[in-house]
Amino acid sequence: MGRIAKTPTPPYYAVIFASERTEEDRGYGKMADKMVELASRQDGFLGMENANDEGLGIMVSYWDSLEAIQRWKENAGHQAAQERGKSGWYQSFALRVSKVESDRYFEI
């Protein structure tokens, strides 16, 4: 997967997850890789982008429908990762869902 997701013609949805991490890793990296793999096999998944800088992480995942986002939210493996995040990996986090009405992609 490239660093910038190549998404289809809108409309589609973006789930924006911003987080501040705790100091300890305790398996976070392995779980993050597992979640990328799991999400990429989920019906309705379109792509993902991720950036981290000094404890602040932003992950944007793209989905073809609100129903696909709901199925991802209810995925048992994803729910287990969420619980671990709440109990030890994150100091704080925010989750936002947006409908993408327009996009442009440029390669130079």
UniProtKB/TrEMBL annotation:
InterPro entries: ABM_dom, Dimeric_a/b-barrel, Jasmonate_Hydroxylase-like
Domain ABM: 13-84
Domain of life (superkingdom): Bacteria
Protein name (Swiss-Prot/TrEMBL): ABM domain-containing protein
Organism: Paenibacillus albilobatus
